[in-house]
Every structure is written in C-alpha cells, then in structure tokens.
Design brief:
alpha/beta; binds flavin-adenine dinucleotide; 339 residues; Rossmann fold; single chain
Amino acid sequence: METLLVLAHVQDDGALSAADLETLGAAVGLAGALGAPLTVGLMGKAVQAAADSIATCGAQAFLAVEGEDFATARYATDVAAVEALARKSGATLVLAPATSRFARALPGVAVRLDGRIETHVCALTPAEGTLKIQRWYYRQRMQATLDRAQRPWLLTLDRGVFAPWSGSPGTAAVEKVEVAPPACRTQVVGYETPDADAQTIRPDAKLLFVAGAGWTRKQADGQTHVPEAEKLIRDFLDLTRASLGSSKSLVDQSSESGAVISFLSHFNQVGQTGATPRHPKGLATCCHGEEPHTVGWRFIGERRAINLDANCGWAIGKADVLYVADAFQVMARVNELLK
Ligand SMILES: Cc1cc2nc3c(=O)[nH]c(=O)nc-3n(C[C@H](O)[C@H](O)[C@H](O)COP(=O)(O)OP(=O)(O)OC[C@H]3O[C@@H](n4cnc5c(N)ncnc54)[C@H](O)[C@@H]3O)c2cc1C
C-alpha cells in the first residue's frame, strides 16, 4: 500500500502559501482515492501556526523540521530537512509544490533516498491502489501519462492545476524531527525584491495582458508612439493588477536596439521559447497571434485579442473574441472607463 507525505515550507509570516495549499488539496484527494495514510511535513522557523491552519485536513501525522536554519531557501538545509521528513514518514509518495525552493532541493533528496522524481506534474490519477501521473513535454505540445515501480517517488506539482485545500483550523499535534544543520557555505542575509509596481509578472492575477510588437510599430500617422504605448500599458496594469506578458518580437527589440517598452524583459515572454502562464483570462494587444506565441496560451481560460488585422492569427481559431480595432484607441478608452 502507498503512504503519502505532503511537504510545505512555512512562509516568513508563519502561514502557508497558495502553492502549498494546492498541493495539500491534491494530496488529500489522492490519499482518499488510494485509501492511503497521509503525513504532512512542514519546514520553517516556527511551524505550529501553519500546522494548526490545516489541522483538519485529515492527515494522520504532522512532522516538522523547525528552526532558524530551516527558515530560508538553501540547498544544503532544504535537502537535509526533506530527507529527514521522508525517512521519518516512510512515505512511498512524496508530494511538494513546484516552487523554486523544492524544485532545487528535491532531485537531490531523490538521489539520497534511492528514489525517483517527476517534476511539473499536472494530474494525479489513482489506478489500482497505486498512481499514474501526467506531465507535459515539448512546451505543452505532448502530454505523457507515467507510472513507476521505484519508491519513494517524489513529485513536484505545478501551480494553478489543483484546487487549494480549504477547511477550518484546529490544533495539530506536531512531532518535531531533529536534524543537525549540515555544514553550510551559503548564508542567507535577506531578500531584495523589486518595488510592487516594477514587478509585472503576477502569477495569481485573474488576467494576463499581452503586449505585442505592434505597440512599437509605425501607426496610421507614419510615426511610432512608444511613450504613449508605455503609458497606456502601465496605466492598465496599475488599474487592473493584471500580469504582463509579451511576444518574443517585442522583448527581442531591446537586444536589436529597436524602440522598446522599458519595463518588459525576456521574463515576460509567453510562448514556445517563453512561459506558459495560467490565468483565467487573457487579452492580447498588438500581437499577431502566431503559433509559437499562442502555444504559450494553452492554459489561459478565455482569450481575447485586439488587432488591426482581421486576418491575424487570433482570427483563425486562437482567440474566443477578436476586436478588429486600434489598440491605442481601445486601451485609452478602457483605462478611462476603469478610472
Ligand atoms: C523556434 C521559434 C520559437 C519562437 N518562440 C516564441 C515565443 O516563445 N513567443 C513569441 O511570442 N514568439 C515566438 N516566436 C516568434 C513568433 O513566431 C512571432 O514572430 C512573434 O510572436 C511575433 O510577435 P508579434 O505578434 O508581437 O509581432 P508582429 O508579428 O510584428 O505583429 C504585430 C501585430 O501588431 C498589430 N498592430 C500594429 N499596430 C496595431 C494597433 N495600433 N492596434 C492593434 N494591432 C496593431 C499588427 O496588425 C500585427 O498583427 C518563435 C519563433 C520561432 C521560430
């Protein structure tokens, strides 16, 4: 029979993140379907408040590696903590959110435990007392269903796929797992984060706003209007808190010395060689909607686009709604209405 361990890092404020709750939701569902016992493994400076917040999730046990050494992301301490939790729980299946922190540490843990790991898991299907998982390959063009005989099997679960666990808090009986902090060469001295306004990639936003190269092209008057484009996009983002995506052509312009939208970087690029974000809605502006771009829209729920060209890619099955219109005019009016 399988036994499950679900892992979470406690945040600085003592709470669990949205990604942790999604993974917990998936683990609770899987444990129920398999009839398998579930253990929660927490790591952080102090874990009791987080454990209490999920006390009624149905886990048989709460294990914790606690202390200052395990508060921040660092490969050596994260690997030591997860290894100790996995050994203590005796789990055959170890689930964790695909955060940068777990993505970095878990492959090393799999080696130490002589287990195997699958990353970016997007579906868990119980099958005859065991498990099949799904993940995408080749930039979300091929989906594979996998199982494995080797145990423990470690899985990092993608964000935005599983419904987050929700339930009433309680009092969790947390068992501490002692881990001697390993010799560390890395000292975490603090965080440096961009201003909230400078951070344009917002994975939790309801809307993805994509800017294409058309924003920097010559318009009907024969001129470019890049400062105006910047202001329209910036105002819209400020008003809606949408996440900002871009086409490759637009972000490439900075390296080609073209006119650029100053707050865009390659991190914003959506598509085959960019990101595949997950948002309920998406609005593409001044972007042609070519396949290498729209393949990155696979997980966007409702898609709309604004383009001058009625024959652009969005019109041929890539969008639910295409507004054949001047995006400068449309966005100016939309911002006015939003204000
Ligand atoms: C191997 C490979 C990988 C690639 N990976 C990616 C990727 O990850 N992401 C990606 O985006 N691309 C990718 N591409 C490039 C992709 O094929 C397109 O070249 C790119 O997406 C085009 O960007 P664009 O639509 O912004 O620009 P353009 O094709 O120049 O389109 C600009 C659009 O703006 C419209 N427009 C102009 N002015 C206005 C206005 N005032 N109002 C409304 N509309 C207006 C025009 O009608 C036009 O449709 C890849 C290509 C290859 C070969």
